[in-house]
Amino acid sequence: MFWLFFPGVVTSQTLMAKDEEQSRLASVNASMQGIGGASGPILMAALYQINSVVPFVFLAMCYFVLILSFLYIKSKAQAEGV
Fold first, then answer.
1. Are 23 and 42 spatial neighbours (Cβ–Cβ below 8 Å)?
2. Pairwise CA distance, residues 80 & 82, whole Å
3. Burial classification of residue 70, based on how many CB atoms lie within 10 Å of its CB (0-12 exposed, 13-18 middle, 19 or more buried)
4. Contact 14, 22 (CB under 8 A)
5. Per-residue pLDDT at 82
6. 42 band by pLDDT with thresholds 50, 70 and 90
7. Per-residue pLDDT averaged across 38-42, rounded?
8. Distance of CA 43 to the CA centre of its chain
9. What angle in degrees, to the nearest 10, is found between the helix axes of 22-50 and 54-80?
10. For 1-82, where are the alpha helices, taking DSSP H only?
């Protein structure tokens, strides 16, 4: 189910960004895909050497922080009337 996050995040970013911010947003999204694709396997393999469960716990914590961040930003945007 987590593979559905990225298209939703990109769509919401695109809808919220102003016209003059669209190119910057596209380049940041593209670079993050590259960084994640290059560093993810290396990091997960290193964590797997510690214990086979550690990569999954790490990802769960990252998703938890990500969800809390989005909820905070959403509530802040709603309070400002955006």
1. no
2. 6
3. middle
4. yes
5. 64
6. very high
7. 91
8. 16
9. 150
10. 5-16, 22-50, 54-80
> Token pair of 75, please?
């509530």
Please name the residue that has the structure tokens 């905070």: 72
Residue whose entry in the numeric block shows the structure tokens 């380049």: 27
Q: Which two tokens stand for residue 42?
A: 């290396």
The per-residue pLDDT for 45 is 94
Q: How far is 25 from 19, CA to CA, in rounded Å?
A: 10
Measured from the Cβ of residue 43, the count of other Cβ atoms closer than 10 Å reads 13
- Phi then psi for 65, rounded to 5 degrees? -65, -40
Name the residue among 6, 12, 16 with its Cα closest to residue 80.
16
